[in-house]
Amino acid sequence: MKNVSKIISSKAGTDEMLNKLEQLSGTDMNSILLDLFVRRTQNISPIGVLTQFDQNRFTTPSTIDVIAFKQMELQWLQLAATKKFKPVQLSPLAPLGTCSTFKTVHQNNIVSATRGTEVMSDATNVFALLAAQYYKKTKSHTAIKFVTAERLVRAQGLAHPGHSAHFGIFCMASAGFNRGSFLFEMEQLTEHLSLHLELLSSFNKTDLTIKILLKENNEALCATVQSAIKNISESYSTEIIHQQDPNNYYGLVQFKTFLNYKGKEINLSDGGFVDWTQQLLSNKKHRLLISGIGIELVFKILTGVI
């Protein structure tokens, strides 16, 4: 992408164009972009808008039964609320850099916008901001839990027939502080995983597999995880894996649920511990567990769309 930018700036008559723009204040950059978009739209006809609507994968409406899907979202939110997760209706926009500044995803995979924003691509990153905001304001050490059903937009191309540029996802987050002996971590891990399985109860247990990925070579952690998920592992096919090459997205523990569907293994949900609130609060004792279920993917499978 950087090489493409250099080519474009060279064609525009100055190789230093991007460097100069980068040095502008946020307000000045916004003014330039807004003026540029006004000029570009002045050259677009109504027919041109229709052509874009036909061709742009980001603007294509979903084909799902919207009423049935909304009913499913509501049922899931109500169930999560009984587990003391606070339902939150997030904005469709997030601050610019909400995901990329944590090094979890490249900004090229996010639809950037003007006025210091980007289109929502991951609700859990916004939950980290909400949690940090709460703890900074209240100085509390009480655990807090959020849940939402959001429509996200991601820019990378996806080949799976069940995936699209915009999609519905069910996201949860639990935030709190280290209490020692992995007490907080195991409480939240089992709570998230148990709720995931309850939400996925429309599938046969024998078709579901749980994979627990340990990010640290820690025997005490392994034994603690095994003990914490004992009731779950007795009911579902469960694998505990010591990940040799852990990515830098999750730390400590990650979990995934998979569905055996038409002979293929489909990843339905995912979760794990991240250090985002530690960065936001400058406090290494803070803990944040995030997780998400591809609710639209689940809906499409249950309704036979895929």
What's the structural blueprint in terms of helices and strands?
Elements (H helix, E strand, L loop, with lengths): L1 H10 L5 H6 L3 H16 L4 H10 L10 H17 L3 E2 L5 E3 L21 E3 L3 H16 L5 E10 L12 E12 L5 H17 L8 E7 L4 H10 L1 H4 L3 E6 L8 E11 L2 E11 L1 H6 L4 E8 L1 H8 L4
Notes on the structure:
This protein is an alpha+beta fold and 306 residues long. The protein folds into 2 domains: 2-43, no CATH class; 66-302, BirA Bifunctional Protein, domain 2. Helix content is 39%, strand content 24%. The protein is built from 11 helices and 10 strands. It has helices at 2-11, 17-22, 26-41, 46-55, 66-82, 123-138, 183-199, 219-228, 230-233, 276-281, 295-302, and strands at residues 86-87, 93-95, 117-119, 144-153, 166-177, 208-214, 237-242, 251-261, 264-274, 286-293. The chain is globular and about 65 Å long. The model has no long low-confidence stretch (mean pLDDT 91).
